[in-house]
């Protein structure tokens, strides 16, 4: 998936992203959350982001997840999808959606992680502080 993201970014004059283990963990965490909830979401089960910890007011669930996974930069965005058969298919759909496309093409982003669990896909993006 990183190869396709970087191809798209490069064709738009942007830097390539670097794979980041904490962002991979955060993506896997959320893909697993979605399996547990049986729905696509940026939230965790029962309004939590995971492990029963409540969200801090004003912080997005994906911010909470990537910080809990020890990402040392600034969490920048999360894309979620469900039911796509392959990477090309999910990337095509994300690029048709303004919000998802914006995350993929955000110039400030430097780091990337992704996961697929069951039918759920997640991308996480981040930058340096």
From TrEMBL:
Transmembrane segments: none annotated. Residues 3-118 form the SCP domain. This is SCP domain-containing protein. It comes from Conidiobolus coronatus (strain ATCC 28846 / CBS 209.66 / NRRL 28638). The lineage of its organism: Eukaryota, Fungi, Fungi incertae sedis, Zoopagomycota, Entomophthoromycotina.
């Amino acid at each position: 998936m990183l190869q396709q993201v970087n191809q798209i970014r490069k064709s738009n004059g942007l830097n390539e992203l670097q794979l980041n283990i904490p962002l991979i963990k955060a993506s896997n965490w959320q893909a697993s959350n979605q399996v547990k909830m049986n729905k696509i979401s940026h939230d965790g089960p029962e309004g939590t982001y995971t492990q029963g910890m409540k969200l801090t007011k004003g912080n997005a669930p994906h911010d909470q997840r990537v910080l809990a996974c020890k990402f040392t930069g600034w969490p920048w965005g999360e894309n979620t999808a469900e039911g796509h058969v392959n990477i090309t298919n999910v990337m095509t759909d994300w690029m048709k959606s303004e919000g998802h496309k914006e995350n993929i093409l955000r110039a400030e982003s430097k780091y990337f992680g992704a996961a697929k669990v069951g039918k759920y896909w997640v991308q996480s993006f981040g930058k340096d502080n």
